[in-house]
Amino acid sequence: MRRREIVTLLGVGMAAWPFAALAQQSDRMRRIGFLTGGADDTNSRAMYEAFRQGLQQLGWIDGRNVRIDARFGGADPVRIRKYAAELVAFSPDVILVAGSAATTLLLQETRTVPIVFTVVLDPVGSGFVDSLAQPGGNASGFMQFEYSLSGKWLELLKQLAPNVTRAAIFWDPTIPAGIGQFAVIQSVAPSLGVELRPINMSNTSETERAVAAFAAQPNGGLIVTGSALAVTYHELINSLAAKYKLPAVASNRIYVPGGVLISYGVDFVDQTRRAAGYVDRILKGEKPGDLPVQAPTKYELVINLKTAKALGLSVPQSLLSRADEVIE
After folding, report:
1. Could you tell me which of 172, 174, 173, 167 has the C-alpha nearest to residue 153?
2. How far apart are CA 194 and CA 217, in angstroms?
């Protein structure tokens, strides 16, 4: 073989090598972590299935070209921290995490593994990202809601129970999102003629005493703001609302089947399905720090008519027609 032919063959082979290497790399099994800190296992499982379906629609099939390692924290910080460390130790290509508490613990384990978060209340205030438009670092994702939504909860309470002049606000003052939500509710309260009473969910006995004292006076209602702590206490909140016959509005549908009057908040299952798109982009080479944090696009309204009847309240037809689910 002449020298020129040898050089030509080497040149073709070397030119083809990067493409062959790229094809080989794209064919390898990718690894994805899934971590949720939610207290409601049914909702967490639904979010996981929505995430898997979202990945499948983008061509990522669990067991074929990706392996998904899923962990469910059950609102237990010790368990969530353990699972976060396990997932990081697997050296995954990306981790999907749901909830502010779980995101906090995961970011304490790694600042290098790409992270996509969902159901996060205040990603900037929590220190997860530098800004919504330019997250920087190794994390980006989807916000739980914008603070302006918080005022809507008090408006709904007043619409459903016009006689309410006092509202107890379940909140977590130890997180930026708790302070932000309460501030928005406080800003709209004077125009609705409602006096607010914050209730810090520090422990069960103190929460029970605070609600009992609040319910001793008439024309009261409850608002449950969004936080991991509130979700952990959801069964207690349901029982207190029923015991003292207080109309209650919550940020999460988890409360409504247990007796809370109404909820209005983000559709977490839909948001987790959408998050598969960010995971897909990261698997294809984009960096989470370059992906802007997205605001919610789908909210859901859930009404418990059985609770309304027990409280002697009439739900306006305008609300019923807008409801995504009505429990009778």
Report:
1. 167
2. 14
Instruction: Convert the pLDDT of each residue in 12-26 to its tens digit.
Output: 444 444 433 333 345
Q: How far apart are CA 131 and CA 139, in angstroms?
A: 11
Among 81, 128, 102, CA closest to 36 = 102
For 178-232, the pLDDT digits (tens) are 899 999 999 999 999 999 999 998 788 999 999 999 999 999 999 999 888 888 8
Token readout for 79 is 């368990």
Asked if 281 contacts 260 with a C-beta cutoff of 8 angstroms, the reply is no
Give the Cα separation of 60 and 253 in Å (integer): 30
Q: How far apart are CA 190 and CA 310, in angstroms?
A: 28
Average pLDDT in the chain:
90
Distance CA 199, CA 179 (A): 12
The vertex-96 CA angle with 104 and 282, nearest 5°, equals 115
- Can you tell me the mean pLDDT for 246-273? 94
Q: For the chain, which domains are there? A: 8-144+268-297 (3.40.50.2300), 149-266+300-327 (3.40.50.2300)
CB contact at 8 A, 298 and 227: no
Among 80, 119, 84, 85, which residue's Cα sits nearest to residue 274?
119
